[in-house]
Design brief:
It contains eleven helices and 14 strands. By secondary structure, it is α/β, with parallel strands linked by helices. The protein is rod-shaped, with a radius of gyration of 40 Å. Residues about 375-385 have low confidence and may be disordered.
């Protein structure tokens, strides 16, 4: 955390040693000109500015981070005995410093949920999905800004009104990035989106805990994460804390990344649609024929012969002629179930394999209810290869 002190380098080194004695490596002291001390605090160049003397004064700005100011008010008396002066208090509606966080978080969630919902609409084109995200972004920008002004989290000024543009870009960047990534991560989009927006986004947001109070790794992530940089942009435009250039550049960069991902996803989708589908070679056709008779040897006319294919559940059907003979010329090569039914007779079903170049003959003997030989067990006649 950067602490400024008005004076020469000797004063800075002296304060640095005192702070390192209590919290080694936790602070970095730099010198300030007295005329620039207040501006450095307001613009968040330093967390606090120390005006040394018999009664030292520490300039702080709650608007840049109320949580940080409370921490300094508890910590610095261990080193010096200063009087604190808040030169830029928090907005009326954000006394605790959490208002800006709860302004930004719902916007990030809206962008994330939009991408997850669009994942379910697989039949939509990417142009239609982008249109949906655009409409959601415009609506969210206006509504959330109106609520923030109403709750006095941000003031109603021309600069703060630019937050509607920032919100729109924020929603597009997150929404486009996740929508484009969906084509590559598919069923893993939800956990990835939750990690991106919440698991990593919230700890690195810089609110209510400011970025310089975060561990080093999270502080570095704060510089590139869209949620954290949107909060930085809110503070810059609404309160004049810092420059809006860096957070704006980061949000636009995420928008560009999202656009590139969607472009790649669209190209991949077109390639998948136009890729030729390998067609299986048609199976060779064989002829299945034979005779259907009763157990006593009497030909059975008008018996139905059904061929059931296991591969595709298709059915071929024919019937016996007056001499009890049947023939099917278009039976694919393979193994099939053959079912024979006739009036006043018990059905017969057998499994028949057709392979090689020969036709297949298979005769059936049905047990008829009025057949004198009906007390015998129905047996299929011998199979003949022809």
């Amino acid at each position: 955390m950067r602490i400024g002190i008005v004076g020469d380098q000797h004063r800075a080194e002296q304060l640095q040693a005192q702070l390192d004695h209590v919290e080694p490596g936790g602070f970095r002291v730099e010198t300030l000109a007295e005329a620039h001390a207040a501006d450095a605090v307001r613009e968040d160049d330093v967390a606090a500015a120390v005006l040394p003397g018999a009664d030292p004064v520490v300039l702080v700005a709650s608007d840049t981070g109320a949580t940080r100011v409370k921490f300094l008010e508890q910590f610095l008396p261990k080193v010096i005995n200063p009087t604190f002066k808040d030169i830029d208090p928090s907005p009326v509606g954000d006394a605790t410093g959490t208002g800006v966080f709860f302004y930004a978080l719902p916007i990030a969630i809206v962008a994330m949920v939009s991408a997850i919902v669009l994942l379910q609409l697989g039949a939509w084109t990417y142009r239609r999905k982008l249109t949906a995200v655009t409409i959601v972004g415009a609506f969210t920008a206006v509504v959330t800004y109106a609520i923030a002004v109403w709750q006095q989290v941000v003031p109603l000024t021309w600069n703060s009104a630019l937050l509607m543009i920032g919100t729109f870009v924020f929603v597009q960047g997150v929404g486009w990035t996740l929508t484009g990534a969906a084509a590559f991560v598919r069923q893993f989009l939800v956990p990835i989106a939750l990690t991106f927006v919440l698991v990593l986004g919230v700890p690195t947001a810089g609110a209510p805990v400011t970025h310089d109070m975060l561990p080093t790794a999270l502080g570095r992530l704060h510089e590139i994460m869209p949620l954290g940089q949107f909060i930085t942009l809110v503070r810059s435009l609404a309160s004049g804390v810092g420059s809006p250039l860096h957070p704006s550049a980061v949000l636009v960069a995420w928008l560009v990344i999202g656009g590139l991902l969607i472009k790649l996803a669209a190209v991949r989708s077109r390639r998948d649609v136009t890729a030729p589908v390998a067609q299986p070679e048609p199976a060779s056709l064989r002829r299945l024929h034979g005779m259907v008779s009763s157990l006593s040897g009497t030909p059975v006319s008008h018996a139905a012969v059904w061929v059931l294919r296991e591969e595709d559940d298709s059915v071929l059907r024919t019937a016996t002629d007056t001499s009890g003979r049947y023939s099917l010329d278009d039976v694919p090569e393979g193994t099939h179930h053959v079912l024979v039914t006739a009036r006043h007779a018990e059905p017969e079903i057998v499994t028949v394999s057709l392979h090689g170049h020969s036709d297949r003959a298979h005769d059936f003997a049905l047990r008829q209810w009025d057949d004198p030989a009906g007390n015998l067990v129905a047996e299929a006649a011998g199979e003949i290869e022809r």
